[in-house]
Amino acid sequence: MGGSESPTDQVDEAELGENAPEPPEHLVLAAAFPEPTRDQWAAAVDAVVRKSGRIGEDAPLGAGVEKLAWDTADGLHVQPLYTADDGAGDGADDGAEAPRFAREGERWDVRQHHAGESGSAARAAILADLENGVTSIWLAVGAGGVPVAELPAVLDEVYLDLAPVVLDGGSSALEAGEAFLALAADREVPADTLLGTLGLDPIGLRARAGTGPDVSSVVPLAARVAAEYPLVKAVVVDATPVQEAGGSEAQELGFALASGVAYLRALTDGGLTAEQAARVLEFRFAATAEQFPTIAKLRAARRLWARVLEASETTGVQTQHAVVSPTLFTRRDPWVNMLRGTVAGFAAGIGGADAVTVPPFDIALGAAEPFSRRIARNTQSLLIEESHLARVLDPAGGSWYVEHLTADLAQAGWAFFQEIEAAGGAVAALDSGFVASAVEAVRTTREKGIATRRTPLTGVSEFPNLDEKPVVRTPLPAPVERGGLPLYRPAEAYEEYRDRSDAAGERPTAFLATLGPLAAYTARAGFARNLLQAGGIADVEAGPTESAEDVVAAYGGQPVVVLCSTDRLYAERAADTAAALRKAGATRILLAGRGDVDGVDGYLYAGCDALAVIDDVWKAFA
Q: Domains of the chain (ranges plus CATH)?
């Protein structure tokens, strides 16, 4: 460029300043647009929904809006839009302001779970995690984990004052907790710098196993932690067994409150102050791919616990560990689990969890491999480091939608907590079957949604791939028998049929009797194929046909036939085609769509019980 002037050298800054326009007093970006009314918005929504055929021309104003509304597992009716006119919900005025995140504006703790590994393998995996983005370790000890005696070897080279260690000891929790504190003492880790959680949780153990030690068993060790270890938590209030059994968000909240209150009572009866007792508790909640309910649940949990502490005449914050529920994960098309884990991890972070665990995507198949562990920790690194989600304090706060859902969940969760208290408290409610009965009612509703595919499972009940290459992992040790709340993994119902199909040698195959040209049958043939393949059933189709004779000519003797076409062609040809196929050897004839056609044994349509259809088809192949 030599000595030439730059363009900015030619600008007279003084003259520019004199001629610059005055900035507006208030810059309102929407000022140039007319302010719409709620009715105008509803009319616009109705127009779009009407085009889809979901409402009629004479439907009342707001009918389309209602089509976009949905109900939570707790029966809370959620509208697609909330504004200041709707307020924050009935549960907002609960006696306590929504508390801030315990972690304030800091990043959340990336916590990786380790279970089912030998001592040396566990140590190698732990060090690999800590060297690559994981900030704390959640370690199974005892049944399903490393032996308590191997704890020093497994945690070799782990700096206990830098990387928190959270113990998952189950029935060995007290022994594991004592061993951990002894290890810290042997390494001369100062008590005021030791980090971690001992994981004492007899109530959570009872929820899973059906039995467990008395709640008061935690008092001696918890009292020691309260007196000597300011950065260590002693007791975990684990509500995830409720979610894993198919329970709702409000049930999880209510159970967490009841369990937390039971521990508060036991600890204060044992000599701790309410403040000391609250300080040694850590709460554990499930995070699911239901993004907004997860966010609202974590926000509601802090609000409700603040109310409990207020009633206990003390203060404190609820430390939250959110675990992406392994019940979300599928054995079929497990790569989709990466997306499920990302959404749930996102919701956990946005909801304010202090620690988040995202399981490896292949956890439903067996022991996780290094690649899947890397993906799990990198998922959180992406959310924290690249998306900067942890830099914003309560990013969902102020959203009328989230605030309303938070308030409604808080109210429903408090109501379930009161029901548990009326049943005698958390332990009594578990022992009497009250909690199990309440959870079963919700699980039944969830099972119906899975069976009808109203709740879709991508890669399993929707868009299955019968030709996918199986992902094989080393089996984990047999899980400890659950004598308490059951473990409900929704995908399992479909995966059992897929396993049966793979083991059959020759995959069962149905015949798609397509009527008319390609354009006439493609949509319903695709629907039928999708449903059948979800149950491990392959198909062949007739292709374009002009008569029943054409269909029979393409028929290969399969016992199960599905008629696929338009309603018009069904009226013209379905009955004759069904009769001809029956004569040719078909034993079970179905029709893709609704209707009343002679010779048809059943119907496949959106919202039908897909699992019942699949079971019926399998019986026809027997």
A: 106-430 (3.20.20.240), 504-621 (3.40.50.280)
